[in-house]
Amino acid sequence: MTSFKAARCPNIVSPKSGEITVDYRKLVEFIPVAKREMLSDKLVDFILTSKNDEKMPGQLANTILHYWQQDVLESESGLATLLEAALLLEPERTLGVFAELEMANIAEQIKASLPS
Amino acid sequence: MVKFGIEFVPREPFWKIIYYTIQAERGGFSNLWVTDHFNNRNVYVTLSTAAIYTNKITFGSGVTNPYMVNPVFTAQAIATLNELAPGRVVLGIGAGDKTTLESVGMEMQRPLVAVQEAVEIFRKITSGENVVYKGEVFKTAGAKFLFKPKGKIPVYVGAQGPKMLELAGKIGDGVLINACHPKDVEYAVNCVKEGVSAAGKKFNEVDVAAYTSFSVHEDIKKANKAAVPVVSFIVAGSPPQLLERHGIEVKKAEEIKEALKANDWGRAFGGVTPEMISAFSVCGTPDMCIERIAELLKSGISQFVVGSPIGANVREAINLISEKIIPHFQKA
Question: Is residue B160 part of a domain?
């Protein structure tokens, strides 16, 4: 697998708005499998304890619940939705956890990709 | 074997409550109760979402009241839910919260009669009857659903005072006792038993639940800290006889009440003593909670409901209950 350090952060440019968004699914591919369970656990905690509830889009919330119902929040798709939600609700804490789990390079790449 | 229920307040967004509900179902809880206050999110929308994301937990309002919504509409909501999750739905109904009712200009008129009549109307209309009812509080002149309700839906009556507890035992398929301390629960269960026997039923035919304010954490200080705000409101709303039964000075409760009215949280929460926490919550480490639940079970309750705040971190608390507390009672 290509190391994330060597690759560019996987962004998508919307053909309609021209807006740059992070491709979370591709991003998750760069997260070592061994660290996904721990990361998933921390992201769930950030989301559930966040005071920024109003930032959670209903559709994204339903997608997370769907993955939780199937008990697959640690899968690539599950983790991608958690990451998207966590970055919306708790960006600082989310970026911090990548450093804590020794994935600071990924945090830096996400930071550079997020809209300022 | 005792069943475990869990209560959520839909002040939280639906996705948090549903996340916890899925977790609770997986962790061995058998009942979900969602509170009904107009100033929070809607109880039936929350329960509908819970129905979609779960497949075995039983759920219901914990509790609605007959004043804010006419009983035929409550019956309509519950009967529709029972189509979404057949056999998993119950109605929880009580007299309501006086302060909340007054805030929308409603008077808690004749609570015993209102609850009894509401339950009668609920049962008639959900069994498909054309209801002509001439009660003292409610009247219907031929109310019938244009759809066929499915099956008999159990009714749980929420109660605190002796007369409502007795009525709950008499008319309820279940009773939700609003108490946490063994002395209070034992007293309440005896009142329920009077109603049960007056109705010619057997006590074990009624699911009697202790509906508690609960807080668990491995660190007792954190468990207490989470319980304090809830306990302060309970103390402020408790009648003098109840406070005296637990050796709590009425004057101290009045001080907390005044502080809460003034939104002086520091003074209100600072006034909560360990005695108050013990009287009005089940709080502590998992072992301490097990000890308290075991004491409560001696009174004959068949369901233990963990209510707000549940813990300093709800997700961690549900895990603790599922991994340490429920298995203890399953083994027993």
Answer: yes
Q: Which residue of A has its CA nearest to B26?
A: A69
Q: Say if B54 falls within a structural domain.
A: yes
Q: CA of A48: which chain B residue's CA is closest?
A: B16
Kindly report the CATH number assigned to the domain that includes residue B319: 3.20.20.30
Name the pairing type of β-strands A11-13 and A20-22: antiparallel
Does residue B256 belong to any structural domain of this protein?
no
Residue B160: HSE in the Cβ half-sphere, 13 Å Cα cutoff: 18
Residues A27-77 pLDDT 10s: 899 899 999 999 999 999 999 999 999 999 999 999 999 999 999 999 999
With respect to residue B233, please indicate whether it lies within any of the assigned structural domains. no
pTM, two decimals, is 0.93
Q: What is the ipTM of this complex?
A: 0.91
Given a cut of 70, is residue A17 above it in pLDDT? no
CA distances from B319 to A35, A101, B327 (A): 21, 23, 12
What one-character DSSP code corresponds to residue B321?
I
Query: Which residues lie across from B140 on neighbouring strands?
Result: B133
Interstrand relation of B139-143 and B131-134 (parallel, antiparallel or unpaired): antiparallel
Max Cα-Cα span within chain B: 58
Decide if A65 touches B, using CB distance below 8 A: yes
Please tell me the predicted confidence (pLDDT) of residue A18. Answer: 55
Tell me the average pLDDT across A78-103. Answer: 95
CA distances from A102 to A8, A32, A96, B95 (A): 18, 11, 10, 55
pLDDT average, residue stretch B209-225: 98
Q: Are B278 and B217 in contact (CB under 8 A)?
A: no
How many domains are contained in chain B?
Answer: 1
Beta strands in B105-240 (DSSP E): 131-134, 139-143, 155-159, 174-177, 207-216
| Phi, psi of B85, rounded to the nearest 5 degrees | -140, 75
- pLDDT tens-place string over residues B122-177: 999 999 999 999 999 999 999 999 999 998 999 999 999 999 999 999 999 999 99
Q: Which residues from B are below 8 Å from A45, CB to CB?
A: 313, 315
Residue-range definition of the domain harbouring residue B107: 3-221+282-331
